Amino acid sequence: xxxxxxxxxxxxxxxxxxxxxxxxxxxxxxxxxxxxxxxxxxxxxxxxxxxxxxxxxxxxxxxxxxxxxxxxxxxxxxxxxxxxxxxxxxxxxxxxxxxxxxxxxxxxxxxxxxxxxxxxxxxxxxxxxxxxxxxxxxxxxxxxxxxxxxxxxxxxxxxxxxxxxxxxxxxxxxxxxx
Length: 178
Description:
The protein has one domain (11-166): Peptide deformylase (Peptide Deformylase). It contains 3 helices and 7 strands. It has helices at residues 25-40, 126-139, 150-166; strands at residues 45-47, 57-60, 72-83, 86-92, 95-104, 107-113, 119-125. It has a 5-stranded antiparallel β-sheet. A hairpin with a 2-residue loop joins strand 4 and strand 5 (95-104).
């Protein structure tokens, strides 16, 4: 089932999500619905708060050529180790028509629980490391625009307010969004 993706400035996007107590059938179904929603958007990652569900759940699939072959579904993901620094151009399904360079850890070790409740650890670098950090930020009530300069963020907010005032919706981002 395709779910509605909330857009900035929806206040739900700013609320930290509580942990999942157990990976139940309900949580596994949420993960599947989030994955279907992410593909339809299209994006490469999605966090439960983006679809209005206050749970610490994320899904990712960076491989557009082999959709479904490299899916990551995690409950209660956390960055256990981080090193290095990388700047990456990020977009977001909840922040329409805007991308910006964001500084993040270059390599991460992320732990969490898979769709079957098994404990997982993922070592990641490059785009996967960036995407994991981006989605975990959503679980903490943060958006990538919180990691850019105030000036750039204010320009985006003014542009969004103008679009609302004039009744013209901003266009969806054209690039790959996390």
